[in-house]
Amino acid sequence: MQRKKNPQADLRKYSSLMFALGLCLVLFISWQAIEFKSYERQYDLESLNVDNDDDEEVPITEQIKTPPPPPPPPAPEIIEIVEDEEEIEETIIESTETDQEEVVEEVEVLEEEMDMDIPFAIIEDVPLFPGCERVPKSQRRQCFQEKIQKHINKNFRYPEIAQEMGIQGRVFVQFMIGKDGSISGIRTRGPDKNLEKEANRIISKLPKMTPGKQRGRPVRVPFSIPITFRLQ
């Protein structure tokens, strides 16, 4: 039996088509091979930042000092009693009473002389200005002051220089009446030296007096008086 070829089964007529398809496939694969790039994967390792703020703060604790325990009480002293074998001499106190026949010597006590200044206002016995001796004791203070004032008026002389310059005022005078009645320690204080000099002259002319007494003894007596200089 003779085989017959099917004209449709002839494959050579497709050979050109298959060749073209194969060529296209090779070109496509070659193009993909050229275009294909391999990339090396890189890993960016970021540095790890450690935040110091997250550190936990450790509180500072202060050690509480406990007071030391009190010292133990001292041991009681042991008192040892030692027998004293020494003999104690008995003291004999003699009587101080004197016999009637015994003579007691009298000791004379010398009274100290009063050496102090007694102000005129509080002294017991004021100094006596001559002429006040017969005045009662209660009026002697006033008599003394009146006599002093009369003495000032009698001996008063206004300094000529002070009159020409129109100087006037009050001079305060202080002096001491001694234990013998004499005048000493005259001090003056005023607006002008000429007025002070005149006041000193007037007081220095005072007579000797009977000294003032305190408890019956003569004492020094300070006395103060103002002298007024006034132009008319």
Automatic annotation (TrEMBL):
Gene Ontology CC terms: outer membrane-bounded periplasmic space; plasma membrane protein complex
A single GO BP: transmembrane transport
Main location: membrane
Stretches of the chain forming a coiled coil according to its record: none
Record localization: Cell inner membrane
Membrane topology label: Single-pass membrane protein
Molecular function in Gene Ontology: energy transducer activity
PROSITE patterns xref list: TONB_CTD (PS52015)
Keyword tags: Cell inner membrane, Cell membrane, Membrane, Protein transport, Transmembrane, Transmembrane helix, Transport
Domain annotation TonB C-terminal: ranges: 143-232
Annotated family: Belongs to the TonB family.
PANTHER family to which the protein is assigned, alphabetical: PROTEIN TONB, PROTEIN TONB-RELATED
Cited NCBIfam families: tonB_Cterm
Name of this chain's protein: TonB C-terminal domain-containing protein
